[in-house]
Amino acid sequence: MSAPPRIPVAAPVLDGRERDYVLECLDTGWISSIGRFIEAFETAFAEACGVRHAVACNNGTTALHLALVALGIGPGDEVIVPSLTYVASANTVTYCGATPVFVDNDPLTFNLDVAALEARVTPRTRAIMPVHLYGQPVDMDGVLEVARRHGLFVLEDAAEAMGARYKGRPAGALGDCAAFSLFGNKIITTGEGGMVTTDDDALAARLRLYRGQGMDPARRYWFPVIGYNYRMTNIAAAIGLAQLERIEAHLAARRRVAAGYDARLAPLRERLITPVTAPFADHVYWMYTIQLANPDRAYRDQVMAALDADGIETRPVFHPLHTLPPYVRSDAPPLPNAELCAARGINLPSHGRLTEADLDRVAASLSRALA
Question: What pLDDT is recorded for position 330?
Answer without folding.
Answer: 87
